[in-house]
Amino acid sequence: MGLAVATATLAACKQDGETATAVTETGAIQRTEAGVPDIVYVNSDSLLANYEYFKDVRTRLQGKAEAKEKSLRSQAESFQKEVQRFQQQAGGMTQQQAQATEQRLMQKQQQLQALQQSSGNELMTEESEEMKKIYDQVEAYLKKLSEDKGYKMVLTYQRGNSAILYSDSTRDITTEVVSGLNQEYETEKADTTKTKTPAKKK
C-alpha cells in the first residue's frame, strides 16, 4: 500500500525584530545576525524515511490493508465454491429452486463488491487522516524550531518534484528536524504507555 504525503511550503516568522534579514543589491538574501540562514529547507523524502511516527503509521496501515485483503479474498473464494456447487447441482434442481439460488448468489456477489469498495474507502480515509496528523505535527515542530533559530521560511525539497534546483547544504535542516520529531514522538509514546499501564494495587 503506497503512502503519499502532501508537501507544501511552511513559513514561520520570528517575532524578534533583532534577527530581521535584508536583501543585497544582487538580490541575495542575507543571513541573520547570528550567522544562521533565514531560509532553510527539509528533504521530505528523508524526513518520511526516518520519521519513526510515519514508519509506525505505515506499518499499521499496511497490516490493516493486508488483513482486509486476506478476509476479502477468503470470502471471494468461498463465494466461488458456492457458485461451482450450484453449477454442479443445477441440473437436479427445480426451476424455482434454481432461480432462488441464482438470486441469492447475485445478492451475495453485490454484497461482496460493496464490502470491497467500502473497505478500500475506509483505508483511504484513515490514511488521509493519518497523513494530516503527520503534516500538522511536522508543521508545528517547524514553527517552534523557526522561532528558536530565527528561520523566516522553511521550504520542502523532494528530488525530481521541487522548485528548489540547488541550495547550499548548510540550509538543509532535515537531520535536525527528524531528530527533534523522533524525540518528541518517543516522549509521547512513553507518556502513552505510562497512561495505559494500570497502577499496581498495594
UniProtKB/TrEMBL annotation:
Q: Which InterPro entries match?
A: Chaperone_Skp (IPR005632), Skp_dom_sf (IPR024930)
- Coiled coil ranges (UniProt) are 69-118
Note the SUPFAM superfamilies from the entry.
OmpH-like
Q: Where is this region: Disordered?
A: 183-202
Taxonomically, which superkingdom? Bacteria
SMART domains assigned to the protein according to its UniProt record, in alphabetical order: OmpH
What are the protein's UniProt keywords? Coiled coil, Signal
> To which protein family does this belong?
Belongs to the Skp family.
Query: What protein does this entry describe?
Result: OmpH family outer membrane protein
What Pfam families would the database entry show? Answer: OmpH
Is Methyltransferase among this UniProt entry's keywords? no
